[in-house]
Amino acid sequence: MDFSLSDEQQMIVKTTRDFVVNELYPHEKEVEESGVLREDLHRELKAKAIEAGLYAANMPVDVGGAGLDTVTWVLYEKELGRTGYALHYSCVGRPSNILLACEGEQRERYLLPTVRGDRVECLAMTEPGAGSDLRGMKTTAAAAGDDFVINGTKHFISHADHSDYVILFAATGEESTAHGVRKKMTAFLIDIGHPGFEVRPGYNNVSHRGYTNSILEFNNCRVPKTAILGELHRGFDVANTWLGATRLQVAATCLGRAERALELSTQWAVDRVQFGQQIGKFQGVSFKLADMAVELRAAELLTLQAAWKRDRKIDTDMDMAIAKVKATEMLAMVSDEALQIHGGMGLMTDLPLERIWRDARIERIWDGTSEVQRHIISRGLLRPLGG
Ligand SMILES: Cc1cc2nc3c(=O)[nH]c(=O)nc-3n(C[C@H](O)[C@H](O)[C@H](O)COP(=O)(O)OP(=O)(O)OC[C@H]3O[C@@H](n4cnc5c(N)ncnc54)[C@H](O)[C@@H]3O)c2cc1C
User: pTM for the complete prediction?
Assistant: First the structure.
C-alpha cells in the first residue's frame, strides 16, 4: 500500500490549509464571542472560497465541482476541519452528495446552482421524537391527486436559516417487513418560503458557535410530485446511496482539529517552564503528547483506509462507522488532554483550546451517535454468523 501523497494532493492540502489559516482563523474570535457569523462576512468569505476553487470541491467535475477522489477529499476536509463549522462549512460549502440524485429540471433548479454557490441546501431528517430512530418520524407526505401534502416538525436542522431549500425526508406510507410494519420514506426538495413551510430559530449550542440550527414546521404544505428526489417510497435508498460519506466528513474534520490541538500542546510543552524546566520534560506531560499522537495517527489511518476503500467501491457501513467512532472519540481525548497540558490557560478564551474542546463534544452525537455507530459495527460482525 502506497502511503505517499501525490504532488496534486500536496498542493490541495497546502491551498486548503493556507485558506483556513489566512482567511478563516482571523475571524474565529469574533464568531465565538458574538455567537454569530455576520451576513456580510459570510458573503465575503464564501466569495473568496469560490475564487480559490475550494467551494463544492467534493462534487464531480461534470456538475462544476473539483471531482476529488475520496482520499483527496478527506485530506481537504481534514484541513477545513482545523476551524469550526460556522466558518469552514457555511463559508466553504460542500453540497450534499444526495443532490446527485437530482434529475431533469431538478438539476438546473437545485444541483447546479448549489455547486456554484448560488443556492444553499439543508437536509432535514431529525424530529423532536425521532433522532437515532429515524423510522419513527411523524412527518407525513400524503398523496393528494398529483401533489403531496406535508405535515410535521423537524428540529436540529443545520444552517436552515441560511438555506434556500430543504431536502426533506417524510413518511409516505407503511409496508410489512420481516421486522414488522415499517414506514416508507420519500425525499423531497422544497424551497424555503413555500406556502405552509416555516423555518423557526433552533437552540443555542455550545459546540460550533455561530453554526445555527433551526426548527422546520410543515403545515398542510402542498408540493407537486416533481419535488420528489429519487423515487417515491425510496428515500432511505437515496440516503444510503449518497449519505455514507458524511460520516467520513465528520471523521476527517475531527482529524484537523485534533492535529491543531496537538501542535499547540507540543509547542506549549516546550515553551512553558515549571520547576525550572520545560513541562515537556516531565513524563506526566510528554506521555500525554505521545498518547495523543498515537490516537491521532490511528484515527487518520482508519479514516483514510475507509476513503481508499470507498474509491474502490469496496467500503461497507462498518468502515464508515469505525472511522467516525475512532476519529470523534480521538478528538474528545486529544482536546481534553490538550487542555490539561495548558493548565488554567487552556480554559481561557484567549486560546482556541476551550473552543476545540467544546466543539469536539457534538462530533460523537451528530450524523449518528457513537452508540449507533457501534450498533452498525457489531451488526457487521454478528450478521455473517447468523447473529
Ligand atoms: C447541532 C446539531 C445539528 C444537527 N444537524 C442536523 C441536520 O442538519 N439534519 C438532521 O436531520 N439532523 C441533524 N442533527 C440531528 C442529529 O443527527 C441527532 O441529534 C442524532 O442523530 C441523535 O439523535 P437525538 O439527538 O434525537 O438523540 P436520541 O436518538 O434521542 O439518543 C439519545 C441517546 O440514546 C442513545 N440511543 C438511541 N438509540 C439507541 C440504540 N438503539 N442503542 C443504543 N443507544 C441508543 C443515543 O446514542 C444517545 O446517547 C443535528 C443535531 C445537532 C445537535
Answer: 0.97
Q: Residue 180 has which C-alpha cell?
A: 414488522
The C-alpha cell 462544476 sits at: 64
The ligand 1 atom nearest the CA atom of 154: 11
- The pLDDT assigned to 244 comes to 78
Give the end-to-end CA distance of the chain in Å, rounded to a whole number. 33
| Residue pointed to by grid coordinates 467535475 | 61
CA distance 286 to 291: 9
Q: Which domains does the chain have, with CATH numbers?
A: 7-94 (1.10.540.10), 121-233 (2.40.110.10), 244-385 (1.20.140.10)
| pLDDT of the residue at 381 | 97
Q: pLDDT below 50 — which residues of the chain?
A: none
Phi, psi of 334 (to 5 degrees): -65, -45
C-beta separation of 235 from 188 below 8 A: no
Distance 2 CA to ligand 1 centre (A): 37
Residue minimizing CA distance to atom 37 of ligand 1: 132
* Phi, psi dihedral angles at 164 (to 5 degrees): -100, -25
